[in-house]
Amino acid sequence: MPRHRQYPTNAARQWAYRQRERRRTGAPDVVCSELGLCTLFCSRWEPLYTLLPRRSAVVADPPYQAGYDYTKARRRPSQWDRNFVGATADFDPAPWLSFPEVILFGADHYHERLPRGGSWLCWDKLAGTTPADFAPCEWAWISKDLPPQFVPHLWRGGQRAGEENIARLPVKHHPAQKPLAVLQRCVQLITPGLVILDPFMGSGSTLVACVREGRPCIGIEMDPAYYAIACARVQAELQARPG
Asked: Which neighbouring-strand residues pair with 40?
């Protein structure tokens, strides 16, 4: 059977050029890994912002004040000994609204800072099961004018559908981890030819979804521990894909 090879898009080539320029001009020196068509940075996003390709689509679950303490025990003791950076802070979407296309999770928590228009994606976490003390859904704002998107995928505590089922993934990679199936749906909504950017990549789920969809992508994560997990997940996904 012939093996399919991924070739960089023009946007990916432009990003590679900017990376060479970054090194040549002595721009901020941060930890960077290039895995397939994925570029991962261990850094805050601010030093890299002006270097990001403008032909990018932002797909991210940014940190925002949701009034939730991930270290607090619920039905069982929490696996987390700390909240991720930004979990108790307000999120300002303004820096990302200049990009051609944007999908931001948790947008109902900062909707007053978003422009008029666009559309919404509803991730139904109950997926037909009975209500519980977990959030029944999560909303993502889409800058494109699309029909409302509805994605049912079970994700309520220890009950998780698909490959993140608790039998396959007993311990989540990140407190705010999203299902790959939901993120793949988001990636599919992005116009072909755009580099996909996740400036708050956490454990790298958006980038894994991009690998599955054959899309060039950039991820930025400031926490070295989560950055290492993201790199390992992307590398494992690349090894599982045909070359």
From this structure: 33, 219
Phi, psi values for residue 190, rounded to 5°: -85, 140
Which residue from 71, 56, 135 is spatially nearest to 103, judged by alpha carbons? 56
Could you give the angle at which helices 180-189 and 205-213 cross, rounded to 10 degrees? 60
- Report d(CA 214, CA 187) in Å as an integer: 10
Q: What is the CA radius of gyration of the chain?
A: 18
Domain boundaries, the chain: 9-16+41-65+88-194
The secondary structure of 14-25 as a DSSP string is HHHHHHHHHHHH
Distance, CA of 164 to CA of 72 (rounded, Å): 22
Handedness of CA 160, 166, 167, 168 (dihedral sign): positive
**What is the reported pTM?**
0.85
pLDDT tens digits for range 18-41: 556 555 544 567 899 999 999 999
